[in-house]
Amino acid sequence: MEEEIYEVIIIGGGPIGLTCGLEAKNAGLKYLIIEKGTLVNSLYNYPVNMHFFSTPERLEIGNIPFVSNNPKPTRAEALEYYRRVAISSGISINLFEEVEEVRKKDDLYLVVTSISSYITSNIIVSTGFYDIPYLLNVKGEGLPKVTHYYKDPHFYAFQKVLVVGAANSAVDAALETWRKNAEVTMVIRGDKISDRVKYWVKPDIDNRIAEGSIKAYFNSSVAEIRNDEVDIITPEGLITIKNDWVIAMTGYKPNLSFLQKLGIELSADDVCKPTYNEQTFETNVSGIYIAGVICGGMNTHRLFIENSRVHAEKIIETIKTKKDNQSSVLY
């Protein structure tokens, strides 16, 4: 029996991966999305009470309306929206299946996963950046009390909580756990709360710090974590505080090593930007494309859902044009 050949395999089932799938479906291409976690896995791992910066229409994909009860949609609304998009559009997607290897097979690619293998003529990598946290690289970071993903504030009620970071995730964790009666301390590498913090939240955290409700150590870093204590390096010297939990909101980075395994070249600077055609999003490896935030390399604050949706349109248009040209040559 002849092996099934896909025209597009999409690696990553986030909003942009889904958009690529919608575009491929509309173009009549045989495609499959492969996602190593749940549907829109990164969004699922966001804090339970999170609100997006963006308004609903900026999170829409496939021209399918996103109706929200809030000016800034919640995580729960986004999860429901993308699930309904997948259902109503009949998206072809395999969940909890991880791509382990990609090998060249004549003029095609063999995509080997944790469950099966697939042959395809084109690959789109849309893997986001939320899977690999920046580590503190300090003794005790591997203790069960330390997490790089904050979910729900109730868990930390009446506990001594250390929050590391000064951007949106850290500020949300600090404020929400404090409002559940946690004793909250923040460790901040710089001299202030980040200017990127949501404008309606920043006055809140600034005021809580100013009044002493939340203790903040600026220009400071964590030195060591123990079961019931944390050492902090401050401008005044090393201090030790009692502690039950550490929420390290130190940011995340894309899986650039996976791109390198595919043969995609990265820039030699700190940004490590992948090499790709800005018009077609095809990389230096023929037939392999990238879409979404992964296009920015380490610069993860440049691309979002609203300005990455066009990537899918351009990629699928390029693949469809190549297919049509090949067909015209054959006939």
Order of helices and strands: EEHEHHHEEEEEEEEHEHEEEEEEHEH
Structural class: alpha/beta
Give me the Rg, rounded: 22 Å
Briefly note the CATH topology name of the largest domain.
Answer: FAD/NAD(P)-binding domain
* Biggest sheet architecture: 5 strands, parallel
Strand content: 15-25%
* Continuous helix count: 8
CATH class of the largest domain: Alpha Beta
Strand order of the largest sheet: 4-3-2-8-19
Number of strands: 19
Helix content: 25-40%
In one word, what is the shape? elongated
Number of domains: 2
Q: Name the average pLDDT.
A: 94
Structural commentary:
- The protein has 8 helices and 19 strands.
- The protein is an alpha/beta fold.
- It folds into 2 domains: 207 residues, FAD/NAD(P)-binding domain; 114 residues, FAD/NAD(P)-binding domain (3-Layer(bba) Sandwich), CATH 3.50.50.60.
- The protein has a 5-stranded parallel sheet, with helices on one face. Strands 10-17-11-12-13 form a 5-stranded parallel sheet, with helices on one face.
- Helix 1 packs parallel to helix 8.
- The longest helix is centred in the C-terminal third of the chain and has 26 residues.
- The protein starts with a strand and ends with a helix.
